[in-house]
């Protein structure tokens, strides 16, 4: 997963390519493009983009990328996709196949919540849970999902208002703070890319 983040580009398309062999085959045979960066004079890619040719696979990959980070189970995914739990479970296995580090981390978080009744964010803040010794399956499942969710909650968009004359200076400060959110540093193994704009309205900035 670190390699995918470092590669940048369309992360969800890259996930779909790694999950589905027929999608990977299409990319390797140059029938579709994983990404496309137009050059002067080009108005469309020479072959379809993966996100257009395999929209269903990419949507499922995108949903998995977000859902797994927040602890969603095969039961929840089966309801989202309106499929059998077995199919959702099989899809989860495909996603985890090349991401064993994610499975290991989730297992660690669940064990921590059950043993110590709390988990921690990267900055050491704790999320506490009730003792689960006599909890039923439903309550235990809720705590396990929360144990995965709590450390990874991220707000990926911030809207700020201020005077026009200092917009450029403010943008630079915001980018610096968001790319180095841990007391002025980035302790993660990947860079935190920040896309910032300023405009007269939210609509104009989109």
Q: What do you see in this structure?
A:
The chain has 206 residues and is an all-alpha fold. The chain is built from eleven helices and two strands, in the order H-H-H-H-H-H-H-H-E-E-H-H-H. The chain has helices at residues 2-7, 11-19, 21-28, 50-53, 55-69, 74-81, 85-97, 100-116, 137-149, 167-179, 202-205, and strands at 118-120, 126-128. Helix 2 (11-19) crosses helix 3 (21-28), helix 2 (11-19) crosses helix 5 (55-69) and helix 6 packs across helix 7. The protein is flat, with a radius of gyration of 21 Å. It starts with a helix and ends with a helix. The model has no long low-confidence stretch (mean pLDDT 87). Residues 3-166 form the DNA-directed DNA polymerase family A palm domain. This is DNA-directed DNA polymerase family A palm domain-containing protein. Keywords: DNA replication. It comes from Oryza meridionalis.
Would you list the SSEs in sequence order as H and E?
HHHHHHHHEEHHH
Which strand-content bin applies to the residues?
under 5%
- Number of E-type strands: 2
The helix-and-strand class reads mainly alpha
How would a crystallographer describe the biggest sheet?
2 strands, antiparallel
Tell me, rounded to a whole number, the average pLDDT: 87
**Helical segment tally?**
11
Gap from first CA to last CA: 28 Å
Helix residue percentage: 40-55%
Uncertain spans: none
Q: Estimate nothing, just give the exact number of structural domains.
A: 3
| Whole-angstrom Rg | 21 Å
Question: What would you call the shape?
Answer: flat
Please state how the strands of the largest beta sheet are arranged side by side. Answer: 1-2
């Amino acid at each position: 997963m670190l390699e995918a983040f470092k590669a940048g580009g369309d992360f969800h398309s890259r996930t779909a390519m790694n999950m589905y062999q027929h999608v990977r085959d299409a990319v390797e045979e140059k029938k579709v493009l994983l990404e496309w960066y137009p050059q002067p004079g080009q108005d469309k890619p020479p072959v379809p983009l993966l996100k257009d040719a395999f929209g269903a696979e990419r949507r499922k990959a995108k949903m998995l990328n977000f859902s797994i980070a927040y602890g969603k189970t095969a039961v929840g995914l089966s309801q989202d996709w309106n499929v059998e739990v077995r199919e959702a479970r099989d899809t989860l296995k495909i996603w985890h196949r090349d991401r064993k580090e994610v499975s290991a981390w989730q297992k660690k978080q669940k064990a921590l919540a059950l043993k110590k009744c709390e988990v921690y964010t990267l900055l050491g803040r704790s999320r506490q849970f009730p003792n689960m010794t006599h909890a039923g399956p439903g309550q235990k499942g809720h705590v396990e999902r929360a144990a995965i969710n709590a450390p990874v909650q991220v707000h990926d968009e911030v809207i700020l208002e201020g005077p026009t004359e200092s917009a450029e200076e403010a943008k630079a400060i915001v980018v610096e703070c968001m790319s180095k959110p841990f007391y002025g540093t980035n302790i993660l193994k990947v860079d935190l890319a920040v896309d910032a704009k300023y405009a007269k309205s939210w609509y104009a900035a989109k």
